[in-house]
């Protein structure tokens, strides 16, 4: 049930392009913590939207006309 609100929030965050962008894409330097890895926001959104690449989702977000 969180698919649509999460998608709109992701579009808002990705267009800003600041720290929130780094947090949602999960691109950090350093080591991973031990144990089971947490599910990333982009992975959850990709499973909700169906088959496709995360790069396609990011490209669709950036192509939005204002």
Keywords:
59% helix; 66 residues; globular; mainly alpha
Structural notes for this entry:
- The chain is an all-alpha fold.
- It has one domain (3-27, 38-62).
- The chain is 59% helix and 0% strand.
- The protein contains 4 helices and no strands.
- It has helices at 3-16, 19-25, 41-49, 54-62.
- The mean pLDDT is 70.
Mind sketching the topology for me?
Blueprint: H1 3-16, H2 19-25, H3 41-49, H4 54-62
Please sum up the structure shown.
By secondary structure, the protein is mainly α.
Number of domains: 1
Termini separation (Å)?
27 Å
Model regions low in confidence, pLDDT < 50 over at least 5 residues:
none
Count of individual beta strands = 0
- Order of H and E elements: HHHH
Gross geometry: globular
What structural category do the secondary elements indicate?
mainly alpha
Mean pLDDT over the residues: 70
Provide the β-strand percentage band: under 5%
Largest sheet: none
Radius of gyration: 13 Å
How many helix segments? 4
Helix coverage percent: 55-70%
Q: Which oligomerization state do the chains in this entry correspond to?
A: single chain
């Amino acid at each position: 049930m969180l698919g649509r609100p999460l998608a709109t929030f992701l579009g808002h965050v990705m267009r800003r392009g600041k720290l929130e962008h780094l947090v949602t894409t999960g691109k950090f330097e350093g080591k991973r913590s031990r144990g089971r890895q947490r599910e990333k926001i982009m992975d959850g959104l990709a499973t909700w939207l169906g088959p496709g690449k995360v790069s396609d989702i990011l490209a669709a977000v950036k192509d939005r006309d204002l």
